[in-house]
Amino acid sequence: MFELGGSSCILERKDGDVIRKISSTKDYNDRLKEQMFKQMEFLSVNKSINVDAPLILNSGVIEDSGLFFFDMEYIRGNIFVEHMPFLSTIEVHRIGRTFCEYFDDLILRSKLYKSDELESAVGDKLEELKKNSDHVEFIEYLQKQEVGPIMKSKCHGDLTFSNMIFFGKKIYLIDFLDSFVDSFLIDFVKLKQDLYYRWSFYLSGIPSYYVLRVKQVFYYLWSVLQGMYKDFIDTHSFRLLESINFLRIEPYVTGIKKEHLNRIIKETPLYEKFDNTNGRRI
Description:
Distance between the termini: 55 Å
Structural class: alpha+beta
CATH architecture of the largest domain: Alpha-Beta Complex
Shape: globular
CATH superfamily of the largest domain: Aminoglycoside phosphotransferase (APH), C-terminal lobe
Oligomer: single chain
Radius of gyration: 19 Å
C-alpha cells in the first residue's frame, strides 16, 4: 500500500521491517539521493546516544518508471501527536536533555562559515524567494541585512516534530533535507517553528482535549533550548535565518495554511523591525 510522504515522496511498507521511499518524479531523483546521503552521513558521524536515524538498507532505480528509491529500517515508534500528550514530567525532561545532547555534538564539530560563501548562499536564496512571494518588500529589507557570523556544521535541515519518531528513550530522525546553509542554527530555527510558533502542531489536527498538555510540553522544551543556547538563538543571524525559513514555506501552502503562515511571518522579530516607520518604506 502506498501513501504520499510529507516531502511528496511515496512511502511503501515492504515485507518485514522495511520502508521504501520513492521519488515522486524523475526530477526529484537527485534531491532524494541527497537526502539519503545526508541520512547516511548522519549515521556515520552521530555521537548522540539517544538521537538516531533509520538504517539505510538498499537503494536503486525502479526499472519501469526510472524513479529513485531507497530502503530503510522501519522504526516501531510514535509520532509526536501520539506521544506528547502522555509524557510524564521525567520523560519531558529527558527529551529536553536529548535535544541538548544532539546540539552539543553539532556545536562541538562546527566551524565559522567563510563570509563570502555565507553571503552568496543567503543572497541567492533571498533572490530566489522573491519570485514566488507576497512579501517582496520584506525580502528586499532582508537583502540589506548583515549576514553572519554563522557557524557551519552538519544539520538535519528540517528538524520538525513531523520528522521525528519516538521509540523508548530514543528520538529517530527521518526526512533529512538539503539546506541552503549548513548550520545547527537551521535546526534551531526548525524547532522554534514547532515549539514556539507550533507549526506542526497546527497542521496535525491534534484532538482539542490534548491541546493544553502539548502546548505545555512545547513551551517547556523551547524554554530549555533558549536558555541553554541563547548565545546562538538571541542573535541577528538566527533571526535572519528564521525569517528566511518561513518565506521558504510560503510557495508550498495555500488557503487557511497560507493565512496562518502569513501571521507567523508578521510575528517574527525582523518583520516587526521592518514593519515600522524606521524599517519599512512608506
